[in-house]
Amino acid sequence: MTNPTTLRDHALVFRALHVPGNPLVLPNAWDTASARLVEDAGATAVATTSAGLAWALGAADGDRLDRDRALAAVARIADAVRVPVSADIESGYAEDPAGLADTVRAVLAAGAVGVNIEDAAHDGANGPLRPVTEQAERIAAAREAADAAGVPLFVNARIDTFLRGAGGVDPTLERAAAFRAAGADGIFVPGAVDPGTVKELADGVDGPLNVMAGPGAPPVAELASLGVARVSVGSVIAQAAHALVRRAARELLGAGTYESLEGGLDYGALNTLFDRTR
């Protein structure tokens, strides 16, 4: 059972790390090994990538993974590190606000103190994004569930306008305002990395702005100068790790050589990192 005092303390620490101009930098993890390595590299918090976590559990990303398996993995990650953990919970693993509230209670029980909740509609029945009112109700349910538990969970409202080609700055800011009013603490806009666009978003969002970076995006220092409060990389690290697996496997099975395996982490150093008896 997670100690509520510790959980609340972690939540307050995590919340305080979101500073415009001095952003929280999150190299996203997907299992206990990647989480420990991220923490060991000096991260002040660990955030999961829903895609990387789903792949590690044998599921596709995009609301395909069930809540129990996802949050069991989050619990293992939270137990493996000492820093605060934020969970990417996709659309909330629930069909309605009440179900999303249940998910938030399960997130807290798993030991995480932050969530990403996306507004993408993966079924595509009514367009690429959930209606603003519907998504605001879901965010409000998440906020109420966390507040009732006495934990200042950081609710990061993800807006997929740019990622899914569903609008530019103005529609994004309209959604951001509605989601903030519903109880979101921060706004996450993946797919927006152009400096001018990021600046408009940082100036227009009433709250901390999170952007998703990666190859081709401005460096963290430049994003900081634009007013960003949080920089994450989504599934990019997981993708790079899996690319190495495929490259090494193809080389070994094809040429029968091992060059792709050069530069690996030292066995002893890794083993020590995970040896809790030391």
Automatic annotation (TrEMBL):
Gene3D superfamilies: Phosphoenolpyruvate-binding domains (3.20.20.60)
Name of the protein in question: Isocitrate lyase/phosphoenolpyruvate mutase family protein
InterPro entries for this protein: ICL/PEPM (IPR039556), Pyrv/PenolPyrv_kinase-like_dom (IPR015813), Pyrv_kinase-like_dom_sf (IPR040442)
UniProt cross-references to Pfam families, sorted A to Z: PEP_mutase
Upper taxonomic lineage: Bacteria, Bacillati, Actinomycetota, Actinomycetes, Kitasatosporales
MF terms in GO: lyase activity
UniProt keywords, alphabetically: Lyase
